[in-house]
Amino acid sequence: MINFFIQSKRGQFCSLWIFLFIVVFPLTSCTEDEVLEPLPKDEAYRLDKPAGFPDITFDITGNSVTVNGVALGKKLFYEGKLSRNNTISCGFCHIQEYAFTHHGHTVSHGIDDRLGIRNAPPIQNMAFLKNYTWDGVSHNLDERSLVPITTDFEMDSSLPEAVGKLNADANYKKMFKAAFGDENITGEKILKAISQFMATMISADSKYDRMKKGTEVFSAEENQGMALFQNKCASCHSGDLFTDESYRNTGMYYNPQFDDRGRYRVTLDWTEISYCHSSPALH
How far apart are CA 196 and CA 127, in angstroms? Predict the structure, then answer.
C-alpha cells in the first residue's frame, strides 16, 4: 500500500509538471539570436491583448512602444555593459528557454558570482500586471530595470556608468537616435527602452491556450495535471495569467544565509517576513 501511494503521488506530480511545462514555456516574443534592425522611420509597435487577458497596464502615455524602441530594448536586455565589469546582462539571470528564470540555481547569482537572495522571477506578460518582483516593491515597469543595474550582487553598476559606456559605441548612438529622435543617451532612455522590450514579452500561444480555444486537445496525463493544478494550486495561481497578484505566506522560514525577509523589505511589517509575491504569472 505504501509503495502504491508513493507511485501515485509521483505520477500526480509528473502530470502537474507536464501541465506547467505546456503553460509556461511557449512565448511569442523574439529569441535572443534574432536581430531587430531599426527602421529608417520609426513606427508604433502594436501590443495586442490576447483573448481573455486582463487589460494592458503598461502606461504608453509616457513611453510609447515603437519598433525601434523595442529593438534597442532587446539589445540592452542582453547587454553586459550595463554591469560594472561588462559580464552580466538582464538575460544572464532571465533565461528565455527557462521562462526567464535562472534555472538550475537555488538563488540567482550575479557579478563576481555573488549570490542574491531569490531566484529571478519570470517576466513574461508584465504588460498586464500591476506589481513586479517577488515582494511587489516595483509598480512601474519603466523603473523596474534600475534595481538589478544598481544592486551590488546583481550588476553592481549605475546609470551614469552605463551611459558612459554606451556613449562610446557608435552603433548605440545610432539606435538611440532611431528610437528617441536624437543620439543623446540618458539613463531614462535606457530604462524606457528595456521596458518597451519587456512589454512585448507576451505568452499566449501555449498548448494550454490552444486547448482553451478548442484547436488542440490535452492528453489524459495533461488533463490529470490540470485537474491537480486546479485543486491544489489555483487558489493563488488563478485567472488567465495564473496569478491573483496577492502576497501569501509561503511557509518558508527566515534563512540568514540569504537574508530574504519577504514583504517585510517593502512594508517593514515583521508579520510579513515570510510573505512573498507567491503567485507569479505562470502563463
Answer: 9
